[in-house]
């Protein structure tokens, strides 16, 4: 994870190693946020999205089929790991916070919208997030766009729109 690298004739510098799992990269990204290294944090969040996480699937690794009915040969299957849906939602939310802290409002809103489009639905957290102070109004519009309404609200508001 975080370590010091010594090269002949050079001072020690902090290096962040490549990570093997989503959780390890995310933990390092959050640590970078606490250190105020927002660019480093964003890079690690991006990396985390490409690493094995809680999501998994099974894929065929050969085109062989069983001589009995042509079924897939189980030994020719492998498990594939990737960032789960909830991990991706949380990562994009965290990225939105980092972009907002950096003052990059457009990127913050894009990351927040990506989190919402993936199903992030903690709307109270979004409205209370101190990092979103600069994008509060636009974040509210995104919430309105993604937050499900009851059928009664939808019927009432649709009638108001028609008038």
Strand order of the largest sheet: 1-2
Number of strands: 4
- Write the element-wise H/E pattern from the N-terminal end onward: EEHHEEHHHHH
Helix content: 40-55%
User: Which stretches are poorly predicted, pLDDT < 50 over at least 5 residues?
Assistant: 1-16
Q: Give me the Rg, rounded.
A: 22 Å
- The CATH superfamily of the largest domain turns out to be Tetratricopeptide repeat domain
List keywords for this structure.
two-stranded antiparallel sheet; 7 helices; alpha+beta; Serine Threonine Protein Phosphatase 5, Tetratricopeptide repeat; 2 domains; TPR_rpt; TPR-like_helical_dom_sf; 163 residues; TPR repeat; disordered N terminus; two-stranded antiparallel ribbon; flat; 4 strands
Write the layout of secondary structure elements.
Elements: E1 2-5, E2 13-16, H1 22-35, H2 38-48, E3 55-60, E4 77-82, H3 85-102, H4 105-117, H5 123-128, H6 136-146, H7 151-162
Antiparallel strand pairs: 1-2, 3-4
């Amino acid at each position: 994870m975080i370590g010091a690298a010594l090269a002949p004739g050079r001072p020690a510098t902090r290096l962040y190693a490549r990570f093997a799992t989503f959780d390890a990269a995310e933990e390092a990204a959050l640590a970078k946020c606490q250190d105020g290294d927002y660019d480093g944090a964003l890079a690690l969040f991006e990396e985390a999205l490409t690493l094995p996480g809680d999501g998994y699937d099974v894929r065929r690794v050969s085109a062989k089929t069983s001589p009995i009915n042509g079924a897939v040969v189980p030994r020719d299957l492998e498990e594939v790991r990737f960032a789960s849906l909830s991990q991706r939602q949380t990562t994009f939310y965290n990225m939105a916070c980092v972009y907002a802290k950096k003052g990059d409002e457009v990127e913050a809103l894009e990351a927040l919208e990506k989190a919402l489009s993936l199903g992030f639905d903690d709307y109270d957290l979004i409205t209370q997030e101190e990092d979103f102070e600069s994008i509060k109004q636009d974040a509210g519009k995104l919430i309105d766009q993604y937050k499900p309404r009851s059928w009664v609200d939808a019927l009432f508001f649709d009638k108001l729109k028609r008038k």
